[in-house]
TrEMBL record:
Protein name: Vacuolar protein sorting-associated protein 62
Signal peptide (from-to): 1-23
Taxonomic source organism: Arthrobotrys oligospora (strain ATCC 24927 / CBS 115.81 / DSM 1491) (Nematode-trapping fungus)
Presence of the UniProt keyword Signal in the record: yes
Superkingdom of this protein's organism: Eukaryota
Signal as UniProt keyword: yes
Entries under InterPro entries matching the protein: Vps62
One Pfam family, short name: Vps62
UniProt keywords, alphabetically: Signal
Amino acid sequence: MEAQTLLFLLSLLLYNFFIPVQSAAVRKRAPSGVPQYALDYAPLVYLHSDDEYRPSNIRSMLRNTQPRVNFKPIPGIPQPVTLDNLDQLNDFGGDSVYLTSVNDVAADSQQAWLKGVTPDATGLTNGAISATIIVNEKDATTTDVFYFYFYNFNSGPPVWGIKFGDHVGDWEHIMVRFQNGIPSALWYSQHADGQAFTYEAVEKLGKRPVGYSAKGSHANYAMGGLHDHTIPNFNLPGAFFLVDDTNKGILWDPTLSAYYYKFDVGTSSFTSYNPASPVNWLYFKGKWGDQQYPKEHEGQYILFGQARYGNGPTGPLGKELQRKDICPSNVKPCWVRPFLTAKLEKE
């Protein structure tokens, strides 16, 4: 039996064994007020078996970075920077603020803090709150629930053997749209784009949808295997140019260690379901990572307009929490696929 097949069977066995425990754990860990359907249908994520950069404690980013604008430290900012005062950095440069790694990642991308935490057998990232769940009750019948996943480092996949797209910080998400508490469609974020599917179309464990996190880049896919995303919002058959690799590696349950919030569209404000959880960090407009290194920076290169080391991403606030379609507004047309594309590559 192939090792990967054995790993999948073991994951499935563990999932079926622990599902009552997991359900109880979610109810115990999730604060009161969180809609039960947001937990019952929360996506599970397969991390790539060979990905060295795992889900990360959101607070750990702040302990290992220094806010900068134009590569220069910002004088007069709150000390220390925490999730409770992160929003105050908006007064020192707004979206020009970058949470910049104290130690240059071009010189050392093997820093321990970048590696994150490997989930245990129950899918828990022990000691690390590595996910954020945001509930947007759009109207009396429609609710969008965003499941955000945080990683301290994004390792871009090589293009014809050349690395592009590495950066500190990585926010990815799957969004589930509910109609009267019933899931209707899902959005899987993939780099600056993504794909949408009906709930019926996607793979599930029990009734929970499954996502596949790509090796290094952590783009979310609805199925395992290789994904050529040279054309945005469309996976080409086979592997040609821009390729993400996914497989049934380690099963992660982000709900077991997450912050839970409600988003109010009218006031563009967040309320925590747990009064003890920090809220202010969600209003930070800057970037979760380094500013793109200039071309003369050691280890940096820019080819075909693409940099080896790019900018860090925006946080959840920058992911269009209020959207008309299941897709963000930059995705046209918004095709909600009623089926999964046939697998043309082995996982």
